[in-house]
Each structure stands twice: as C-alpha cells, then as structure tokens.
Specification:
Layout lengths: L2 H9 L1 H4 L5 H13 L1 H13 L4
Helix pairs in contact: 1-4, 3-4
Protein name: YqaE/Pmp3 family membrane protein
Organism: Winogradskyella endarachnes
Pfam family, one: Pmp3
Length: about 50
C-alpha cells in the first residue's frame, strides 16, 4: 500500500478501492454515504487485506 493510496482513501475512499472490485467499491461508497469516517476505515481495511 502506497502513501498515495492512503491519502486518496482519506480524501475520497471509494476511489481508493476502485481496482479491488465492484463489491469493495460499493461497500465503501455506501459506508462513505452514511458517514465519512466509516468509509475511510473500510477503505483502509480493504487496502491492507493481503488476500485481495
């Protein structure tokens, strides 16, 4: 995970996980819609997952 991904996940979380798949994008977008902080947390968790 690069520093640019971390910065992008703080500014606009769905855009940071767009290459991880449609499901990850939708989950992050919905969480970001309901609250900015849950979207950031979800994006960072998805980006830190070594299996994806």
């Amino acid at each position: 995970m690069s520093i640019w991904r971390v910065i992008l996940s703080i500014i606009f979380p769905p855009l940071a996980v767009i290459d991880k798949g449609c499901g990850s994008f939708l989950i992050t977008f919905i969480l970001c819609f309901f609250g900015w902080v849950p979207g950031i947390i979800a994006a960072l968790v998805i980006l830190n997952n070594p299996n994806r």
